[in-house]
Design goal:
Blueprint lengths: L1 H13 L7 E16 L12 E11 L4 E10 L10 E16 L7 E18 L6 E16 L5 E12 L14 E13 L1
Antiparallel strand pairs: 1-2, 1-8, 2-3, 3-4, 4-5, 5-6, 6-7, 7-8
């Protein structure tokens, strides 16, 4: 039974698709780097490379453009080595528009992307003095490449700059709250 399911799934992914609009799923993982923020940095985490992962679901036109909804999390965004931060994550939710260059069935297809959404910063320190949860309007801009030989299953890599607006001044912030960072990710793009 399991072999039959695996064989059918492999056959479906290997079959070429017709040139029309299609739905997409894109799980990814990578790193954030060059981070800056307006929160109290108890663990000296600003600027450190931190892991991130997430996923996107979208729709691609038969032309060069597409749209997607993306969720990502960086569970250690505010965490460093001191142990003063118990929880220090940033989660993002974006509605993105993508523009692809070249033919959809070419081996390498560069693209540009951008979108608007929300960055949610959550900090809980050991003493509770600077704990905070903030929802900040945010944007992302970037570019990447889609690569592979199958039209249904492709590899994808991109680099994006993520920046939130300035929020309110709270005890957890030095001045106004914000987050800004670069994100480099790789994953798979499933088309169906």
């Amino acid at each position: 039974m399991v072999r039959t399911i695996v064989a059918l799934a492999a056959l479906m992914l290997a079959t070429p698709t017709a040139a029309y609009a299609q739905w997409t799923l894109k799980p990814f993982a990578g790193v954030n780097f060059g981070s800056q923020h307006g929160f109290v940095d108890l663990d000296n985490a600003a600027g450190r490379v931190q892991p991130t992962f997430g996923g996107a679901a979208g729709w691609e036109s038969s032309g060069a453009w597409g749209v997607e909804i993306e969720l990502a999390t960086s569970p250690n965004f505010f965490k460093g080595d001191s142990g003063l931060i118990e929880t220090g994550r940033v989660g993002t939710f974006f509605a993105n528009a993508n523009w692809r260059f070249g033919r959809a069935n070419s081996r390498f297809q560069p693209y540009v992307t951008g979108g608007l959404g929300i960055a949610r910063a959550t900090i809980e320190d050991a003493l509770g003095a600077f704990s905070s949860t903030s929802n900040l309007a945010a944007l992302n801009l970037g570019s990447g490449v889609i690569a592979g030989t199958s039209t249904r299953l492709r590899l994808v890599a991109d680099v994006r700059y993520v920046r939130s607006q300035y929020g309110n001044a709270r005890p957890a912030a030095l001045g106004e709250e914000y987050v800004a960072f670069w994100r480099a990710c790789g994953g798979v793009l499933l088309r169906f």
